[in-house]
Design a protein that fits this description.
heterodimer; A: 112 residues; mainly beta; six-stranded mixed β-sheet; four-stranded antiparallel β-sheet; globular; B: 113 residues; seven-stranded mixed β-sheet; 11 strands; 0% helix; 56% strand
Chain lengths: 112, 113
């Protein structure tokens, strides 16, 4: 069965520092990958996605993720974080199916 | 203007009661979902409908019954509520079946006391 692993439950980082949130998936077939962000008491918002093509995908607020097939990873990075980036980040995967399989989430805590 | 809207946002009820959560999307999407987020933030799909037809039904107790009167609405009815049903329930939609990218509502926080 397909699964998504986010090893870090919480990542504390100082403002303006770089950050990487790790995500690994298990799938022997083609997979679509997503990062969602959940701000406190809100729903999930799509941050970025990999469907096909370029393995490096970017969001409008400075995040990027790289699909690495050999390492079955889709880590999320940002070179300089802001206080407002504090949120829960979920990695998700799907094959050509109807449902997203979510990781357990990583809480990014940005400190001043 | 809200793309995927759920009501109510908060729901506190006693064990044994029956309750419903409503969801509407104005995106013109064909597919809608219900996800459950537990106290540890873990998200899991419960149901999915495509053009009013049930296409995913995970191992959810049959006390949970989704209903889709049209493709813009997917409601969730829960009978005989139990303490373990306390969670945040998210409705979501995607443009078409087989495209897993989903747009989520704000969630309904259900507390069973």
């Amino acid at each position: 069965a397909q699964s998504v692993t986010q090893l870090d439950s919480q990542v504390p980082v100082f403002e303006e520092a770089p950050v990487e949130l790790r995500c690994n998936y298990s799938s022997s077939v083609s997979v679509y990958l997503f990062w969602y962000v959940q701000y406190p008491n809100q729903g999930l918002q799509l941050l970025l996605k990999y469907l096909s093509g370029s393995t490096l995908v970017e969001s409008i607020n400075g995040f990027e993720a790289e699909f690495n097939k050999s390492q079955t990873s889709f880590h999320l990075r940002k070179p300089s974080v802001h206080i407002s980036d504090t949120a829960e980040y979920f990695c998700a995967a799907a094959r050509s199916s109807y449902k997203l399989i979510f990781g357990s989430g990583t809480r990014l805590l940005v400190r001043p | 203007d809200t793309a995927v809207s759920q009501t109510p946002k908060y729901l506190v009820t006693q064990m044994g009661n029956d309750k419903s959560i409503k969801c509407e999307q104005n995106l013109g999407h064909d597919t809608m979902y219900w996800y459950k987020q537990d106290s540890k933030k873990f998200l899991k799909i419960m149901f999915s409908y495509n053009n009013k037809e049930l296409i995913i039904n995970e191992t959810v107790p049959n006390r949970f019954s989704p209903k889709s009167p049209d493709k813009a609405h997917l409601n969730l009815h829960i009978n005989s509520l139990e303490l373990g049903d306390s969670a945040v329930y998210f409705c979501a939609s995607s443009p078409r079946a087989g495209l897993a990218e989903a747009f989520f509502g704000q969630g309904t926080r259900l507390t069973v006391v």
